[in-house]
């Protein structure tokens, strides 16, 4: 793929119940799923929005010590060099660089505070379609909740060239710091964990056509809405819900609200 270093290129749900997850997200998001042949020993299925690839669902290893989680793949031109750089900057490698035949090369790493993410160099030269802030079904926001956002910004700035593009004060919680690059404004943000001791982690938000329809689908599908719908700052008219899927993976949804539904 030709995406620049640090571009989000794929999203992956690791869960102990991939069949149930596929049923839930298929109904909530309208994603279509496919099981690619070859290249993966573990149960893996990809999903797409209107035919455009967005991510995958993977069966968690037996005995995994972590809860079901969404993770982000960041595109890089050289996985091995970038993994080595992660270590030099104080991060760690959980899975050394390796190939998936016919797919690409990847590594599973963590930043110095412990938030995990993937590095990926796909075999295809086509740009990723996974992140698109304007298209329902695609990821529209990448959010890092961390124990030290200044240190995190220094790390990702040195690793990927990200910069602080702005900030929004949150009463009693410090700044909500927007991150981007010189040609990609605000593809995500980082914030200090509201509860001390919360393990640092990346969280993702998916764009939906109607936030209230999505809320109803989450609840009828066995998920839990933890907060929202809440109106987001700005003049875009976007609303967000924070939810847990039926297996406990945290996920966010962002979309418009019909005028009659707004308070």
UniProtKB/TrEMBL annotation:
Among InterPro entries, the record links this protein to: Anthracycline_SecMetBiosynth (IPR052164), Glyas_Bleomycin-R_OHBP_Dase (IPR029068), Glyas_Fos-R_dOase_dom (IPR004360), VOC_core (IPR037523)
What is one Pfam family matched by this protein? Glyoxalase
VOC domain residues are: 7-122, 138-256
User: What protein is this chain from?
Assistant: VOC domain-containing protein
């Amino acid at each position: 793929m030709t995406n620049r270093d640090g571009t989000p290129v794929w999203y992956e749900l690791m869960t102990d119940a991939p069949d149930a997850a596929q049923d839930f997200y298929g109904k909530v998001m309208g994603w279509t799923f496919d099981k690619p042949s070859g290249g993966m020993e573990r149960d893996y299925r990809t999903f797409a929005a209107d035919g455009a690839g967005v991510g995958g669902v993977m069966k968690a290893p037996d005995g995994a010590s972590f809860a079901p989680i969404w993770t982000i793949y960041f595109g890089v031109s050289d996985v091995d060099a970038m993994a080595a750089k992660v270590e030099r900057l104080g991060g760690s490698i959980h899975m050394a660089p390796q190939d998936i035949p016919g797919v690409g090369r990847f590594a599973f790493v963590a930043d110095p505070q412990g938030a995990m993410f993937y590095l990926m160099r796909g075999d295809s030269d086509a740009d990723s379609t996974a992140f698109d802030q304007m298209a329902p079904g695609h990821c529209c926001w990448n959010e890092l909740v961390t124990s030290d956002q200044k240190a995190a910004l220094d790390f990702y700035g040195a690793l990927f060239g990200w910069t602080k593009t702005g900030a929004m004060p949150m009463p009693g919680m410090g700044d909500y710091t927007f991150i981007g690059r010189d040609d990609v404004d605000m593809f995500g943000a980082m914030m200090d964990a509201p509860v001390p001791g919360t393990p640092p982690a990346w969280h993702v938000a998916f764009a939906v056509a109607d936030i209230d329809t999505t809320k109803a689908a989450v609840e009828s599908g066995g998920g839990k809405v933890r907060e929202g719908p809440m109106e987001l700052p700005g003049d875009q008219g976007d609303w967000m819900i924070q939810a847990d899927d039926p297996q406990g993976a945290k996920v966010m949804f962002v979309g418009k609200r019909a005028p009659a539904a707004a308070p």
